[in-house]
């Protein structure tokens, strides 16, 4: 991981956004930089007023070649975040909007399927006579419904084991 100054970081990040404009992924991480060797829990020592300021580190990677980071001091943070925010807003124009219509259709289909599993199959009509075929279809549907419930229970059981 290469540590660069703030301006170089923003330039390289802009170039990375341009290179992945059509296809690709970029991971950004922000963390407080702590070199004391302490835990992440902030400890207040006796006599300290809690005014200690820590620098922030911002890391960028595309998962392949490009890995670089910058260290931002608290006095430079406002200036950096304004430039960083402008760069992010300019680069986010290539994102695709979520297809909410398709998501809604899938959610409705899933709800219907769950409703069908919850409702029992009613078998009515005589065993012999005019409605015999209708009853046979209902029995077959009831067996299929029971099998579907068993498979769903097995799937749920394997999920809970993991």
Give me the number of helical elements: 4
Structural class: alpha+beta
Number of strands: 4
The major sheet is characterized as: 4 strands, mixed
Major sheet: order of its strands?
A: 1-4-3-2
Rg (C-alpha, Å): 30 Å
Strand content bin: 5-15%
Shape: elongated
| Unreliable spans | none
Could you characterize the architecture of this molecule?
It is a single chain. This protein has 162 residues and is α+β, with helices and mostly antiparallel strands. Helices cover 48% and strands 13% of the residues. The chain has four helices and four strands; from the N terminus they run E-H-E-E-E-H-H-H. The chain has a four-stranded mixed sheet with strand order 1-4-3-2. Strand 3 and strand 4 form a beta hairpin. Helix 1 runs parallel beside helix 2. The longest helix has 30 residues, at 132-161. The radius of gyration is 30 Å and the shape is elongated. The protein starts with a strand and ends with a helix.
């Amino acid at each position: 991981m290469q540590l660069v100054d703030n301006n170089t970081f923003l330039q390289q990040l802009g170039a990375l956004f341009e290179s992945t404009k059509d296809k690709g992924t970029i991971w950004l991480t922000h963390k407080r930089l702590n070199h004391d060797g302490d835990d992440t829990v902030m400890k207040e020592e006796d006599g300290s007023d809690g005014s200690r300021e820590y620098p922030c580190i911002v890391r960028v990677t595309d998962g392949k070649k490009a890995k670089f980071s910058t260290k931002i001091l608290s006095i430079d943070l406002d200036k950096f975040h304004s430039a960083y925010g402008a760069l992010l807003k300019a680069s986010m124009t290539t994102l695709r909007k979520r297809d909410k219509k398709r998501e809604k259709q899938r959610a409705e289909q899933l709800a219907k399927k769950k409703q069908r599993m919850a409702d029992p199959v009613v078998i009515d009509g005589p065993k012999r006579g005019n409605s015999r075929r209708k009853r046979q279809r209902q029995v077959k549907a009831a067996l299929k419904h029971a099998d579907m419930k068993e498979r769903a229970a097995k799937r749920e059981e394997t999920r809970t084991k993991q």
